[in-house]
Design a protein that fits this description.
Layout: H1 11-16, E1 19-21, E2 27-29, H2 34-41, H3 45-59, E3 80-88, H4 94-103, E4 110-113, E5 122-129, H5 130-136, E6 147-150
Antiparallel strand pairs: 1-2, 3-5, 3-6, 4-5
Length: about 160
């Protein structure tokens, strides 16, 4: 009478089955086969593995550092957003707008006058951190008559928007 001895499995079979360590670290398959696992779960082995990886990524906890003492090793600055400020009186300068916003505790990363010298009103392109963008879209921040919107780059004829 022949005994059923465990037989070492090839890599594909081993990955699709539950394994238990055998003699000298060799892996031997248990009674549950790959086909019964995939049929029961409704996924092929590859899809099931991808699904498990996605679940692991979703469950991975992400932290953000808060140490500010390092001068050479630092995180990237937060992203920028641009606003277009229009219908500003001609005598108002970039310095005036910047001083106004700084006095209201906003961070001005860049401010450029966009209007022509002979335009009826001044207009500006304002660059701020993304965390301050939504607050700057509130009407209570701005003087009466000044209009604000998200800045849109000009379309050029070589690269039209679709």
């Amino acid at each position: 009478m022949m005994k059923n001895l465990p037989v070492p499995m090839d890599r594909r079979s081993r990955d699709n089955n539950r394994t238990s360590p055998g003699v000298n670290g060799a892996s031997f398959g248990l009674t549950r086969s790959a086909s019964s696992t995939s049929v029961a779960s409704g996924h092929s082995g590859f899809q099931h593995q991808r699904h498990q990886l996605k679940q692991m990524r979703r469950q991975t906890k992400v932290i953000t550092g808060n140490v500010t003492s390092s001068k050479t090793f630092r995180g990237a600055p937060e992203p920028d957003r641009q606003l277009f400020i229009q219908r500003v009186r001609k005598e108002v300068t970039e310095t005036d707008v910047k001083a106004y916003l700084v006095a209201k505790d906003f961070t001005v990363r860049d401010l450029v006058r966009m209007s022509h010298d002979d335009a009826k009103y001044n207009s500006f392109k304002l660059t701020v951190p993304v965390t301050e963008f939504e607050k700057l879209l509130e009407p209570d921040v701005w003087p009466s008559g000044v209009r604000i919107r998200r800045f849109r780059e000009k379309q050029n004829s070589d690269n039209p928007r679709i």
